[in-house]
Amino acid sequence: MEAAQRSKMSSLLDPLLMVLPPLLVEKNSEDLTDALTYLISVAVEHPKMFRSSFASLVQFAISVVAEKELDDSPRQAALELLVTFAEGAPVMCRKDEHYTMATVEQTLALMCDHDDDAAALAEWQNTDDVRLVFFITNGQLDSDETDENWVAGEQAMDRLARKLGAKSIIPAAFAYLPRLIASSDWRQRHAALMALSSIAEGCEKYMKSELSRVLDMILPCLNDPHPRVRWAACNAVGQLSTDLAPTIQKNAHERIMHALVPLLDTPESRVQAHAAAALVNFCEAIGSEDEIIEPYLDGILERLLGLLRSPKRYVQEQAITTIATVADAAAEKFVKYYDHIMPLLMGAMQSGDGKEFRILRAKAIECATLIALAVGKDTFGKDAMALMQIMAGIQCISPH
């Protein structure tokens, strides 16, 4: 669309936008969702066309996100419209004195929107759906995993931080995060931790410069009474271990390891798996500086060996992945643990021939290979032939 055409269209926006407030008053979720979806389509291509009406449209969108009597769809659509402006016209958003603060506030509110009852907690704890269990490197679930408000909020926070940057997001976020992290409501503590996970990459320089302050918020939550908060704290540690590497590994390894490793003993399988996954992120960035991980190897591997006996297969799978990463980081220092771990891995490779064991077998093979590389042929040589025979047997297992 040419500039002259955009100018003409802009003059029509105000009367067009007048149809929106009545839909909100009527709590007409369906039509409001449709209208906002059309606006998003235009904003993606021509965000600056909304310049003259931007302030009023922001206020309206914020009021939609905040309206709990609406269905989730229009609230999420309104948030999507706000984030679309951030991605397409970040300068216009930064110049609006209310945009960032109000958008962050309502995004955090959506991130608190979890069911809070015993049944919901039991379902969360007992799930075997690995898509909802394992740590995702960028901190977010895929958009088609769930349409819950809290997921929309987490994704929005990540996108806002990437596009608006630390100078805009940090003052707005930290106006709310200390209060949320100190709340008696686990959902608010959870939201604060997930927000820290979500903004880490987009605000990397600030987070590195204030690392001690950030960890002061996160690490105590690893001992939180609510398992979902402990899970979120693991998520934050894992995300920061990736986004703030190698600074966080060099400057905070003692604080993090002493707080994180004991969670491998926690009674909840999901928290165990997420703590182990966070260790993967922490260890992946260590590189050649294996002395960082050496003091903690005994505690880590003792607990990971325990997780290999978990009744939850996804916990076993995650434990194997973490052992492989720790072995890679520890290099030759892993020799001490070889004789304890390699027989268990060989056992895992032969744990069953059903397709439900495929991932476990594959991870065990990968782990054994990385351990072999870490410890060298002198240590691995005595098991090389037995491992080859097991792998040959696996190749003969029917894919069906």
Account of the protein in words:
The protein is mainly alpha-helical. 70% of the residues lie in helices and 0% in strands. The chain is built from 22 helices and no strands. The longest helix is centred in the C-terminal third of the chain and has 19 residues, at 377-395. The model is unreliable at 132-145 (pLDDT under 50).
Structure described in brief:
With 400 residues, this protein is mainly alpha-helical. The protein contains 22 helices and no strands.
Using brief descriptors, characterize the structure shown.
22 helices, 70% helix, 400 residues, mainly alpha, 0% strand, elongated
Category from helices, strands and their pairing: mainly alpha
Straight-line distance between termini = 54 Å
Query: How many runs of DSSP E, i.e. beta strands?
Result: 0
Q: Which descriptor suits the 3D outline?
A: elongated
- Which value, in Å, is the CA radius of gyration? 24 Å
Strand content: under 5%
| Residues in helix, % | over 70%
Number of helices: 22
Would you list the SSEs in sequence order as H and E? HHHHHHHHHHHHHHHHHHHHHH
Mean pLDDT: 90
What are the low-pLDDT stretches, counting only 5+ consecutive residues below 50? Answer: 132-145
Main sheet: strands, sense, barrel:
none
